[in-house]
## 1
Amino acid sequence: MGESTATNNHHHHHHHNGQVYDVSVNMPMQFCSKVVDDDGRPQRTGTVWTASAHIITAVIGSGVLSLAWAIAQLGWIAGPTVMFLFSFVIYYTSTLLADCYRSGDPLFGKRNYTYMDAVRSNLGGYKVKLCGLIQYLNIFGVAIGYTIAASISMMAIKRSNCFHASDGKDPCHMSSNPYMIAFGVTQILFSQIPDFDQIWWLSIFAAVMSFTYSSIGLGLGIAQVAATGTIKGSLTGISIGTVTQTQKIWRSFQALGDIAFAYSFSIILIEIQDTIKSPPSEAKTMKKATLISTIVTTAFYLLCGCMGYAAFGDLAPGNLLTGRILQPVLASRHRQCSHCHPFSRAYQVYCQPLFAFIEKWAAAKWPDSGFITKDTNIPILCLKQPYKLNMFRFVWRSLFVVSTTVISMLLPFFNDVVGILGAFGFWPLTVYFPVEMYIAQKKIAKWSTRWICLQMLSFACLMISIAAAAGSVAGVVLDLKVYRPFKTSY
């Protein structure tokens, strides 16, 4: 394929004022340093395993932390069932999405590099703007979620140390704000790294880290069950009496949102698919990768969620790493940083598309502004090439991080925020757009059996999303009754 385009290029002349310019003889020369793919981009090298690793890294993040709480709301029967249902839906819509990476022919069709590109080439019109809006709001929300989760986790460590030092006599009240600010500052630094996605070792490191830290949660659950010798929890979840009838309903809905959040990874799938080498077609490889990663994350989530519930029963905390119960257990020092890494990596992975989008848009809108387009070279010790400082990138990314940090300080109730995000991102990005794009791409006839089934799936998921959003909003309303901004302490 690459060869044929290269040879065609030589016979490609432009006629202009009767003269013949041979334009593209030089074209292959620029790329001699790197082998290129059919679209002139550097050769992709991804495999099933790298793709699965990417997905798993991106998914197993802060979602794990509220799962024990979610299962506690639903109970031993409904909890795992709902998780299986979600994982099935996610896997299915991800396979639909994999087919939308190339428009037309699955091997040689035009590539879509991002989720937005796929929506643009398959649906077009106002839906592209709608998708962009939801996607970027979602990313903004995820950034807030990660800031809250990271600071809460760092705080849990600090408190457990303080707890230990005083042998549990000091209640160790502290504010989460300094931690949020610290996290924000590290993110400002990280966000200035251009091409964050090319640092593959970071991805591997982060994958290991997020597993470590989720397994801490898991280990704590197992330890607790072993210590007490009883498996807590009930078949129907938290009992009415502990909470009122209406609260039980709202919290069950919110639990759906939390689980949806733990599974919402469609937004990054196309970007990951864009790293895969072909043949076989990228879609084929991607479907395998999604299957592997869905199975791994579901198994992992069930373990974490169920162990947390078995350990703490109805009292399972909204964020596993902060529940009071864990304070003494968490104190061992060597776990100190395992909490912060996955968040900072995940924060960057999620925010990069948004950063890139705004920068591209600004450069197109004001092409002559030096502030936006000019790069200043700053030599840095021990780096081969100097660091390119772009003023606009610096200012805009810093502002972004600052705003998410401030909002996190105002909104510290982790699992409500997670529930709202899960609810708002889940249906449009995970179900609606993939289904619509697939219908458009495969030209599925209206009212055919296939079409009706897809629409029913989409409608059912919409209902779940609405219920989850309602439950989470109800949760926030309840929390706000007892809440004082900037004063959060645990």
## 2
Amino acid sequence: MTENTASEIKIPTEMAAWEIIKNGPIADPAAPIRFVKRPVPTPGPGEVLVKVIVCGICRTDLHVIEGDLPIHRQNLIPGHQIIGKVVKEGPGASRFAIGDRIGVPWLRHTCGVCKYCRSGRENLCEKSVYTGWDADGGYAEYTTVPEGYAYRIPHQFDSQAAAPLLCAGIIGYRALKRAQIPAGGSLGIYGFGNSAHLTAQLAIAQGTQVHVFTRGEDAKKFALSLGAASAQGDLDPSPVPLDSAIIFAPVGDLIPAALTAVAPGGTVVSAGVHMSDIHELNYEKHLFHEKSVTSVESNTRRDGEEFLTLASRLDIHPTIHRYALKDALKALIRVSKGDAAGACVLQISQED
């Protein structure tokens, strides 16, 4: 059965999707997610229904699936780097036309009235809601999004290239802003996965010298191929004093290592939504000399608009590894190993 919109777009009543059935290691033989049939969702007031073209796979998806983040919803469909086509409008929705290609990101809704929202820091809103954590995401053929939180996608990006920009790219951009790197300065990047390889491109394009610290041998080669000045082990000493460092790997023990590597007055940014405990932090060794440690919590919509404009201007493109929707588990296992050398993307439908 299908129903027709005013524009004669046929929408099925059921869709294929992955849902989380328990929390546990993604590589466990009894997988924590399963491939199912679900009803196609109905867009609520101010929302649009999106036919998903592609959905990027993010390490945050692993944190949600494996239980590093608290459970917000049972039988959740993960995924929050979504590119798709608007096929139906909910009551009051008017920002997009039927057939428009849009991006559905991690940040899904904020209250709009708290002190954080009113001061341009909506990413800190205590009532914020997230795609693929609080609401069903993009490991599915259809999803919904409040139209005010979706992005128009620059025409020069095909959907596969655009998907990782919606979280990996935007979060990396916010981390770069918080790193406060001086013009022509040096940046250490710890971990070199999806977000890091986009952040490195952006930093290098802006004249920053990038040094990469990662365990994966393929990741080291990949970093050098993108223009990094050096690539070494994650706990190796830096070849130069760093002005700033960004930590993408969810490993708390990298904080002291990065603080040791940055020069006096340097800044260390933790860019992940989850990180393991920090076991050792010595004031004299790690924090003295006016060194700073900060973090990134989600992003604002302004961050997203700024980054997409900058990425299109500087021609920032991810390296893509494509998987069919039915192979999402394989892609997640690859991401969990931490040496994917780029971004994994689920191809869910064809652009038309």
